[in-house]
Amino acid sequence: MRRREFMAGTLATMAVAPTAIGKGSHRVVACEEAFTLPEIQAELRRIRGEGDAGPVPPHVRAMLDVGEGRLRAMDAARVDMHVLSLGTPGVQDFETSTAIALARVVNDRLSAIVRSHPDRFAGLATFAPQDPQAAARELERAVRTLGLRGALFNSHTNGEYLDDAKFWAIFEAAEALQIPLYLHPRDPSPSLGGPALSIPGFRVGWTFSVEAASHALRLISAGVFDRFPKLQIILGHLGETLPFIVSRLDERYRVESAGWGDRKLRRLPSEYLRENFYFTTSGMNVWSPLRATIEAVGIERVLFAIDYPFEDQTRAVQSIEAAPLNPDDRRMIFESNARRIFGLA
Ligand code: MN
Question: Which terminal residue of the chain, N or C, has fewer Cβ atoms less than 10 Å from its own Cβ?
Fold first, then answer.
């Protein structure tokens, strides 16, 4: 029985639980759920030369709401908790000192939001990769002082990827703090994007995945996980296609690296994907790719996410409730994996 049904029952109200779709006993924790702040929106408009005029788009209005409106929408969809993160591109397009200052503002505010509803919200910190040492310090503050449960970054920063060793202070901090880093997609870097990857209609559905999956493979290839073997990266959208090609990645890596000697990775690509990555269902709450992902990486590495407000949360929940999973497996995806990975009470 879900917590709110139980509460309703003990209060002996006549209220009927809204469409009882849950079969097992589990809460629903969703872990790629976006919010934003007016300060972030103002700076984004400023650097894009958009000015202040014009109505606030519905998705921005939804992201700005971290109070009653969001909670009502979560209740209606039977979602117990949003693990919140700042919407893409975070602070990564801002000038360095602005990005550092706004990351602090965001993390302070996020911490206050979580404290206002600790049973409904948890938070992933924001940081500015533009200054890796400052980012590492902010991660430490966000976790140790503010109680945030991990951090999220939006792939490249000014066209640069975190496989460059100058960024590795960020990974060192995350590993030491034992927090996962969510690698969230965005528009591709100039060196990856360009006309050939500007495919009308497939900017988010395909190009975002190319960007994020390429970033993940760059981290593996550069030896980030040989240097930081306990580091954990979370990928959305069922791994941005990577779980579906693990066997091919292994086979071709073996061939391409045959003469590399010491430069070779210590483990196979599939081993990093199974030991250093988690995979969320954001925007991909569909049984057949979910089943393939579970088989490729193991169910203990798969987490439920919606991608609010860009995806329909009711449909996302109902899809996993209806999937042919046994109650224990469903609970792992909806709740217990998130509890373990984010250290939720
Ligand atoms: Mn997202």
Answer: C
